Amino acid sequence: MSTLDEIGKAVRVRRTEMGLTQDLLARLSGLSRSTVNTVENRSIANLSIAKAVALLESIGLSMNVNVNAARSSSRKNAPPSRSAMERAAATASISYGQAMTAKQLEVALLTGEAPPRIRPHLQVMLDEAPVSLLAKVVDEIHAEKSISRAQVWSQMRKLAHELQCYRLLWQ
């Protein structure tokens, strides 16, 4: 499978999970709807790196170039990082005296309900957290709770509407 085929498949899967139309994805990425369509259908002959990166980053995906696998071995000795849920909760709590916990965030995303104490935190996270972090949170919930990614994105969208988030992603 070629790189363009892999990109096309990944974009279609993520866009569908997120509940986005091709038109909205085009607006989020700054590309035309026809470009999104040809990428997804794997009929595009050539795609610049800049366009590929814009498309992938708009839905929380990325491309990696691995120059030398030996260089990455030094990361094996690094201490374990915090979970995506912990990072998202901390990011959303920066401006507030009382932090939202990863567990509170998880419960909100599983139930689709925003308790009054963490509503501002959730709104900040949904409006301002990088889409890549939101995608990692979705992947984490999917892996740990066996809930479909599409269902978690749907709960995020429900919360974003309830909290009147302005981000184009939630339209």
From TrEMBL:
PROSITE patterns: HTH_CROC1. InterPro entries: Cro/C1-type_HTH (IPR001387), Lambda_DNA-bd_dom_sf (IPR010982). Residues 11-66 form the HTH cro/C1-type domain. One of its GO terms (molecular function) is DNA binding. It comes from the Bacteria. Gene3D superfamilies: lambda repressor-like DNA-binding domains. It holds the Pfam family HTH_3. This is Transcriptional regulator, XRE family. It comes from Verminephrobacter eiseniae (strain EF01-2).
